[in-house]
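User: I'm preparing a small set of examples for a lab meeting where we compare how different chains pack in three dimensions. I only have the primary sequence for this one, and I'd like the structure in token form so I can line it up with the others. Please keep the answer compact; I'll paste it straight into my notes.
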Amino acid sequence: MQINYLAILVSAILSMVVGSIWYGPLFGKKWAELIGADPNDKKKMKEMQKSAGPLYMVQFLLTCSKCSFCHTSSLTVNELAG
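Assistant: Understood. Below is the structure token output for the 82-residue chain.
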């Protein structure tokens, strides 16, 4: 069984899309209020956007590790059943 890296990439991207919708139109105002962010402070918002960039790579790596774990686990289960 091979790991489908395209599926991992799509999964990581979809995770970020869902997160941006979650923390944007759905609960963005409440989230900003809870963390004490002012949406009118453009400098602070730019800093937050810059820090989001590396999170894309982290999300991809986490998705890869989850896929690798599931892939390894399924092989072990198949070997035990076989």
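A couple of notes for your slides: Helices lie at 5-26, 28-35, 42-81. The two ends are 15 Å apart (CA to CA).

User: Perfect, thanks.
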